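Key idea: predict the complex, not the pieces.
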Amino acid sequence: MRSVGETPAVSIPGSDGPTSLTTVAVVGTTGYTGQEVRRLIDAHPGLGAPRLLTARHATADAPGDAPDAPEPFHPERLDGVAVVFLCTPHGVAQPLARTELERGCRVVDLSADFRLRDPELHARTYGAKHTAPELLDEVVYGLTEHARPRLPDARLVANPGCYPTSVLLPLLPLVSAGLVDQDVPVVADCKSGVSGAGNTPAPSNVFGAVHDNFRAYAVGGHRHAPEIKQEAGIRKLVFVPHLLPVFRGILSTIYLRPVQGASAEGMRAHLQDYYEGEPFVRVLDGEEGQPSLADVQRTNRCHVALAEQDGHVVITSAIDNLVKGAAGQALQNMNLMLGFPEDAGLT
Amino acid sequence: MRSVGETPAVSIPGSDGPTSLTTVAVVGTTGYTGQEVRRLIDAHPGLGAPRLLTARHATADAPGDAPDAPEPFHPERLDGVAVVFLCTPHGVAQPLARTELERGCRVVDLSADFRLRDPELHARTYGAKHTAPELLDEVVYGLTEHARPRLPDARLVANPGCYPTSVLLPLLPLVSAGLVDQDVPVVADCKSGVSGAGNTPAPSNVFGAVHDNFRAYAVGGHRHAPEIKQEAGIRKLVFVPHLLPVFRGILSTIYLRPVQGASAEGMRAHLQDYYEGEPFVRVLDGEEGQPSLADVQRTNRCHVALAEQDGHVVITSAIDNLVKGAAGQALQNMNLMLGFPEDAGLT
Amino acid sequence: MRSVGETPAVSIPGSDGPTSLTTVAVVGTTGYTGQEVRRLIDAHPGLGAPRLLTARHATADAPGDAPDAPEPFHPERLDGVAVVFLCTPHGVAQPLARTELERGCRVVDLSADFRLRDPELHARTYGAKHTAPELLDEVVYGLTEHARPRLPDARLVANPGCYPTSVLLPLLPLVSAGLVDQDVPVVADCKSGVSGAGNTPAPSNVFGAVHDNFRAYAVGGHRHAPEIKQEAGIRKLVFVPHLLPVFRGILSTIYLRPVQGASAEGMRAHLQDYYEGEPFVRVLDGEEGQPSLADVQRTNRCHVALAEQDGHVVITSAIDNLVKGAAGQALQNMNLMLGFPEDAGLT
Amino acid sequence: MRSVGETPAVSIPGSDGPTSLTTVAVVGTTGYTGQEVRRLIDAHPGLGAPRLLTARHATADAPGDAPDAPEPFHPERLDGVAVVFLCTPHGVAQPLARTELERGCRVVDLSADFRLRDPELHARTYGAKHTAPELLDEVVYGLTEHARPRLPDARLVANPGCYPTSVLLPLLPLVSAGLVDQDVPVVADCKSGVSGAGNTPAPSNVFGAVHDNFRAYAVGGHRHAPEIKQEAGIRKLVFVPHLLPVFRGILSTIYLRPVQGASAEGMRAHLQDYYEGEPFVRVLDGEEGQPSLADVQRTNRCHVALAEQDGHVVITSAIDNLVKGAAGQALQNMNLMLGFPEDAGLT
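Result:
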């Protein structure tokens, strides 16, 4: 069995060595996230055809008839799998991850099951006791640009939520540098395309309810707020998500008070310096205008801009919620876990 | 039996006795606002066919050939006109309003020309010296629910901007009641449909630039910010507008810190009490969910909801930018100026 | 019991007499059609608050708790009801209509249950034996402009399908006048907004499946084809519906071969003559361009244009599928059944 | 000078030989087509950075300041260019193509300038005399799947129009096989996304005119009709384009009468046989449902389905108008001209 962190015997254009393809698995293939993970796996030069599994009817033996129907999840179906992508509903990933780790697989969990480090907070936030709390200590929160050193050895990566990704990429370096006044809340006014709500037909996502419409939701508190607070290390946050009549993309508008002496200009310089050379994060110059969803849709990029009004700083941050906010970041994490170039399959 | 052409003895619901039809004029009929004013005039039971004028080519004598082509603006064309609606670009309304008042007309200006009381602030904001500063003292800022006592005698009404209307309706009563902590800025994160940007074809409003897209604009400062500050009586405001891929509607999400002892619940009670019985403003109960654009599109209504996170209050406010944010409020103001029922032609 | 066709003791502007309001009922209030019927009833000056009924759980006694929750359908709840609008799924209306007629109500059925005169054809088309065939002889097919003489005495009106309405309004007068060559099929390429498919959440109507997308469906044959053939009196029809990423509206493009000597110009003249003075049908002049959905959305109008290519005539016809294609035409029919002005509540 | 048809000294994955990159040029880079050509060139493994030229201000010497601003078109700027893509407005390509051929470049013209073989027909259709009629004889009409044998030696390729591409791919093999009854017209009811109309802001393409709307245009005759007739070899065609509220994609619904003995099933079998193994054309099986825009957007694919009603055959055909209908097919043609694998850069 290959030990964790060992560089796989795989080659892709630009790297040396033999060309065997790595096998990965996807558990949960019917949602938008699972479909996007599959699409990116297909486009990845170092990966073979993925093993497709379903956590539903885990006791059924008969595989589906359709050519790419997923097989029921059985531990033995994980043999030879380097990384498992969990694209299951919240709550389902906890026992699956334990099983997968036991079988020697490494795990990138795209659900929320391992994002919160404190099991009590998890229980309050997601309404159920955590069933694999012993794993929480080793979880790597996979905001790739900030988790990079820990990824090569990570066994279990909690892929960040879509909203947190869009907020944390600009916010985290500013908080870490002590530039954000924490006496007032950070306000994150976030707008997401409909794909963020999943593809299960519901009154809230039928065309007639979304098209030509717009509204806020979860205004009293959303599950991504504790995740943002935990990772940004901030005490106060007001986070309001909204539903856009578009399919893909998140634009977050973040309002914060700089500490004495800080400014939008200084923060921009700090972020540009921090993300210099990053393949996927771009901090726009003042004159470049504003990030838009169209700039980042179907890419793994995050575009950020900063401005100032009445002494407060306004940050806008755009990502594709299904790519950098989910499947793309999951493969970016996998690339670093397995020793691929970070942008393999993502450009 | 009434003979054809005779002035009709017409009454409208809620008014007494017969009332012959009132003549109004519209200057500027090609933009979305002018078109919406015309649509609402046509639906108003107390108004006759409007006189359509254009401020372009004011020296040309020949009227257009099309059946409803506007005539060039000449002072004598205002004879018998009770109210003139100015739907002209910024800067044009200043000399027109002076002329109209001299001819005995009353004026509802839908441009920004008379919204700011301080001519210096106007000059800084709109980039040109005010050419009718002597009129600024008598201007009534026509946020109808707050201007009601002054409207019957008003000669010159500055119809509020669309963003300010959506922000001020919930904000103003809270500030007036001393419930808003002014040591931190009020944040107004506002999202508007494309009609707010006018109908002149431009790279920014072609379908390919807006559809399936979303972005912020004027992040460093927008002309509606001084107007909101002036009317709300607040010192600090961070106001960021965004462009939605919808045609009609504004949703504003407003973040503020309540003073010690105040809360979202108390503010909701205050607003529900304040707007009790109002035909067009509705403050939703906590359990009624969130206002959406679909609830207010093509109506003169404003729907408001309040929630709380980490001690801060979040207010959402939805209007139709072309109706309550422009033409509908203009007719609502006219109704009060002329003694019509306030909701005549608006339900 | 009031005999069928008796003029109700009701008055609306423009009619004489007392002003008591007529009571109507709506069975099926949760679909888009039922909601649109309710909206139009509320706007109708001669109707009181409608009685809202549901055919689901017809045996349950307890009414719903919500203020406007429908009551279970019981025959005695029809007392005093002049007209019942059936907005139920196909198959449900047959027994309901029989009961309603027995209670002395008149019926406008917005489902497909009484549109086909031949019960065998109905069974083949809708997959179930007709359960009220004895009523088929007296059904009036309610394409209002063509059913007008029969409506005052009609007890049971089959409200036309949305696609048939858009196709038949221009086609029927041309076929009746012998202008259409029936040796080749009439081709009807029809495009509908999503509301035509109902509001039950399904994979086919979630935002992600419709937005930015377009496709044909039922290409091998759609249930509206026999209805169009029956009413137009044509032998051959190729009818292909498509799903537009809009909420409301149908545009039908109809291709036909004129008989020797006929032309688009002559057909246009015939239609303009035929529909002269009609409040809701407008045949555009050659130079007026093409009907668009925006011209007819939220109205009871049908706009038609004609052109010619290579000896064939192209007709475009636009309606709002929920208004002229459903609820609006239902009220237009009711107006004529009850002696209201035909456009009451529809302008 | 390199002779036409010589295989360039270039290699891409899957081919042998050295790996120098080929230089191409794009004239006209501001429209959607020019931008899409650039995007595809960037993704092509065998092409270097393209030379960007503009036909505007051809006499100006100063290049633009922006990093990728196009240079003014000068013949000497074509040195070393293997293929020039002309993405200019109609009429501009004629003199440019002559110059380019004289300089030894090969040309793929994405405008309509060389699509019609008869200069008289061109003049009637495009309203101007052809200025390079001597080139018409050698033009290869680049519907790739049908032009393949002539492309390796082609000097001047007329890239097909977007509508013709969608119609001809299914229609041409059926006509060639004698399966289409030409006594009645073929009807092509085509629906296109807005990008087909270009990105110059105009009243017809602003968001407010397109969103939530739909209409036909050019109903009396469109410039693509003679092109379809010429290439399909049919005498009678009724072609009506419509404007969809989407950005990318064309769905064409084609109605035709099969000759005695032919059927939709037989035609499907013929097309499946004809296009067997093609990388970009897929003829769906009967049970696979209907092509949708979402299936082909951002791809070079054409999806086709067939059905039958009342003895007539209905064909639906979907492409991305900017890819298979323009830039993608242009690169597909270039691949065959230069000896690249046909799908290089297109998957």
